[in-house]
Design brief:
The chain is globular and about 45 Å long. Strands 1, 2, 3, 4, 5, 6 and 7 form a seven-stranded mixed beta sheet that branches. A hairpin with a 2-residue loop joins strand 2 and strand 3. It is built from six helices and seven strands, in the order E-H-E-E-H-E-H-H-E-H-E-H-E. The protein is about 30% helix and about 25% strand. It has a single domain, classed as Rossmann fold, CATH 3.40.50. The protein is of the alpha/beta class and about 220 residues long. It is found in: Endomembrane system.
Length: about 220
């Protein structure tokens, strides 16, 4: 079950990026998940912004630091910094605009070129509430996700359909990957000393583990 938590109350911190063409609804997915808000008049993101939210995964508190950027080409210079440390990604397209679906292969290549192979990817078809305008079939999107070995979900930020599920599934899977890697190294994730980082990927400089005992100074 997901729940809101104080900013400094967490066991794990994971960086997740939102990618996809401009106008597919990335910012509204972010605001719906982190603040339960939606804006019909939201403008295109300029540069980079991020928001945080914590959820429960098993008996741990997992904090997501979710980054959002504009999809326009002129912001591609920020690519390396944007992807650095990311252990999860939502690759978003608009189910009513087929060109945004066609472009996901380019976005996926860019993502994989700049992140570790262990990154957890959720392929997201947003604006699923606009059923009468649908241009991308669910079957085609599922086939793409299966071929690329990613998760898949259709969402509506407007109607809050599957937004919670999409983010929660990504964070839960990242947590499991992190736990497996810790066990492979002979560590007990539940007993990690304060400040120790589990490197989910070789380029991970954001995500990690925070353990603070009841009597820590």
């Amino acid at each position: 079950m997901a729940a809101y938590r104080a900013d400094d109350d967490y066991d794990y911190l994971f960086k997740v990026v939102l990618i996809g063409d401009s106008g597919v609804g990335k910012s509204n997915l972010l605001s719906r998940f982190t603040r339960n808000e939606f804006s019909l008049e939201s403008k295109s993101t300029i540069g980079v912004e991020f928001a945080t939210r914590s959820i429960h995964v098993d008996d741990k508190i997992v904090k997501a630091q979710i980054w959002d950027t504009a999809g326009q080409e002129r912001y591609r210079a920020i690519t390396s910094a944007y992807y650095r440390g990311a252990v999860g990604a939502l690759l978003v397209y608009d189910v009513t605009r087929h060109v945004t679906f066609e472009n996901v292969e380019r976005w996926l290549k860019e993502l994989r070129d700049h992140t570790d192979s262990n990154i957890v990817i959720m392929f997201v078809g947003n604006k699923a509430d606009l059923r009468h305008l649908r241009a991308v079939s669910t079957e085609d999107a599922k086939a793409f996700a299966e071929r690329e070995n990613t998760f898949f979900m259709e969402t509506s930020a407007l109607e809050a359909i599957n937004v919670e599920n999409a983010f929660t599934q990504v964070l839960s899977q990242i947590y499991r990957v992190s736990s497996r890697k810790a066990l492979d190294l002979g560590d007990d994730p539940a007993a990690l000393p304060r400040g120790q980082t589990i490197n989910v990927g070789s380029k991970d400089d954001v995500s990690g583990v925070k353990k603070v005992g009841c009597c820590s100074n």
